[in-house]
Amino acid sequence: MHLDLKHVEALAAILRTGSFETAARQLNLTSSALSQRVRLLEERVGAVLIVRDAPCTPTEVGRRVWRYAQDVAMREQELVSSLALDIGQMHVPVAIAVTPDTMATWFLEALRDLPNLLFVLKVDNAEQGTRLLARGDVLAAVTFQKRKVQGCDTFDLGALQYMPVCSPDFYNQWFRDGLTTEAFRSAPCLTYNLDDQLQIDFATGIAGEDVLPPSHFMADARGLADAATMGLGWVMLPHLMAQPLLAEGRLTCLTPDKHIFSDLTWQVTRASRGIMQPLTRAVRKTARRLLVQTS
Description:
- Helix 1 (5-17) packs across helix 2 (20-26) and helix 2 packs across helix 3.
- The chain has 13 helices and eleven strands.
- With 295 residues, the chain is an alpha/beta fold.
- It starts with a helix and ends in a 5-residue tail after the last helix.
- Strands 3, 4, 5, 6, 9, 10 and 11 form a seven-stranded mixed beta sheet that branches.
- The protein has helices spanning 5-17, 20-26, 31-45, 60-82, 100-105, 107-110, 126-135, 168-174, 181-186, 198-207, 221-229, 239-247, 273-290, and strands at residues 50-51, 57-58, 92-98, 117-123, 140-143, 152-166, 189-191, 215-217, 235-238, 252-253, 260-269.
- Among the domains are: 1-84, Winged helix-like DNA-binding domain superfamily/Winged helix DNA-binding domain (Arc Repressor Mutant, subunit A), CATH 1.10.10.10; 160-261, Periplasmic binding protein-like II (D-Maltodextrin-Binding Protein, domain 2, 3-Layer(aba) Sandwich).
- The radius of gyration is 23 Å and the shape is elongated.
């Protein structure tokens, strides 16, 4: 079955931007012309491809066509590069899954100086990132998990060191008698979401028994650091965030040791290995410089 690449490009633009209006502007089309292309593509495929919501999302069939669109774009870029053709600046959209702490601390540094790639960053927990990679929704992912996704190359990156921190005033109020079980059961902590178990793990490890600290929930990685400096609670903060605030005296560390280290991996689909090679090199180089190398 032949698919019109202009129709496929229309679908990819909508799913990349999340809306018909934005995609139409990017492609220099009217909204009606863009809708027509999608309708013709859906008729050709024989299935609905887009859930028309805000933002627009792919159906299961739409996701498969979107993967095809990304593959076509990458193959075109590889061909142009191999033939040394000068046809102007080409931009290849690359979908990547990253964890919130990765996004907030070091990953953007790796994206510099890669002008031919347009990044679609999907920020979620590591488990969801692995699912997105296995499903083909992203071409690469940074995860905390060692489980290798079939069809991917995997690279160890190093570790994010999580430090237990709070403001000096908060420490004096809640932990002046030490890191006791009672203190952890009373002092509010700061939690990203229900999947974030770092605070519970740390408190339980120190107390030697199960502890469920009272918690504020705040799904904003940098917001957690701000909240800690303001005295709202204690939190396990990535060292790349915590160290400058500790040096300024805005935060204090609950303990100089007993920190938590989360090993990171970079997984990239083998099908996109060629076009992703510059990004893989940049990610590994940045990780070696900024993450804790535990091996």
